[in-house]
Design brief:
The chain is an alpha/beta fold. Helix content is 38%, strand content 23%. Helix 1 crosses helix 3 (56-77), helix 3 runs antiparallel to helix 4 and helix 13 packs antiparallel against helix 14. The chain binds aspartic acid (ASP) and magnesium ion.
Amino acid sequence: MKVLKFGGTSVGSAERMKGVVKLISDGETKIVVLSAMSGTTNSLIEFTNYLKNQNAIGACEHSTFLQDKYKHTIKELYSTEEYAQKATAKVSEVFNHLRNLAQQPLTENLEKEIIAQGEIMSTNMVTLYMQELGLDAVLLNSFDFMRLSSNGEPDLGYIREHLLPLVDLDAKGRIYIAQGFVCLNYLGNIDNLQRGGSDYTATLIGAAVNASEVQIWTDIDGMHNNDPRIVDNTSPVHHLHFEESAELAYFGAKILHPTCILPAKLTGTPVRLLNTMDPSAQGTLIDNNLTQPGEIKAIAAKDGITAVKIKSGRMLLAYGFLRKVFEVFETYKTSIDMICTSEVGVSVSIDDDRKLEQIVDELQKYGTVTVDRDMCIICVVGDLNWEHVGFEARAMEAMKDIPVRMVSYGGSNYNISFLVREEDKERALRSLSNTIFNAKK
Ligand code: ASP
Ligand code: MG
C-alpha cells in the first residue's frame, strides 16, 4: 500500500482538490495525507496573533475572511446540495469553534488547537467530495493515532499500534484520508509536527503501515534542473540516497527535511517526490540504495554566505578552543554550516549575519578575526565514500581557476563543499558540471 501526501497548494482551491481526487482514484487502496488549503495555517496563526494582542474581536473578524474563502470553495467543489450542506456544516462547526476558543485565555495548547483546524477542514472537504462522487473514501482522524512521546518526538510504536486497527489494508479501492501536521502530545493535548509537518505525517504513516512507497506530491518540480540552485547534467535528478537528499536539503532544494525522511530511512520505505502540475513525470525517488557506487548526483549552491576566520597561536595543542568559538555563535543563535580548521585557526560559514558584529566582537577575545562576505557554498553531492579514489581530484581540477576560500570533505560520505565568491559561482558551477558530469559521457 502507498501513502500519498498533497501539500497546501495542491489542495488550494476547489479545482486543485478535484485534480488531486482524479489523481488518487485509480482503484488502488491507499492512505492520503493532506495539508491545510494554502494560506490557511498562516491565517490561523494570524488569528492567534490577534488573541495574543488581546483582540478577540479582531481575531473573529479575521476569521470571517477565511471562512468566506471556504464558502467559495464549497460552492465550486460540490455539485449536489446534500454534500455542499454537509461540508458547510463541518466548516461552520470549525469556525464557530474558533470563535469560541477566541473567548478563552490564550495558552500554548489553545494556540495549537487553533492552528490544527486547517487540516481538519481540508480533509473533511476532500472526503465528502469523494463520497459525493461515489468513491470509497474514509476519513481517518489523525488525533486517534498520531502521538508524540514525552521527549516531543513522534512515537512510532504508538502510531503503529493505534493506526493499524483503523485501516483495512485489503479493502479494495478504499482511500483513507488523514490530516497531516496535527497530532497529540504525550499528555493528550493537541500539538503539531511543526510547520511543513505534513510530510512528516506521511513518512510516519508510511513507516507504521509498512507502505511500499511514500509519495510526496508538490506543485513545484522539486529536484528539477529548472531550480537555479541545482545543476547537473541538464536532466532532472531521478534518484537520490536518503543521505544525499539530506545533504541537499540545506540548499533550499524543494526536498524533504531530513527529520521528515527519518522514519522512511529507518524502515527502508522509498519516498518519491512528485509534481502535481506534471503528474506523469517520473519525479525523484529517494531510498537506501546507491544506484551506482561513486556516482555524483547533483551540484547545489547557496549564496549570501559569510565566512568568519579566527586565528590564534593559542589554538595550537590547546583543548577547549573550538568550544569557546562555537559558544559565541550559540549565544547569538547563529547556526554554522561549513567548518574548516588548521592547527592555528578555524574558519566557519554562516548564512544569517544579523548578529555578525556582536559575534566578531566576542571572537576577538580569542584571536584575530577576518570576515569575508558575499560568498557562496557550492556542494557536490553523491556517493563520495572516502575509500574510493579520484573524485576529490576531479572536483579540485574543476576549481583550478577559481579562488576557493574553504573546502570541506569528510563530514559525511556524501558531500564535498567549496566556499567561493558569489561572483565566481556561475563559473565554478559550469566547470564542476563539465568536469563531473560531462566527463562521464
Ligand atoms: N499546514 C501546515 C503548514 O502550513 C503543515 C503543512 O502544510 O505541511 O505548515
Ligand atoms: Mg505546506
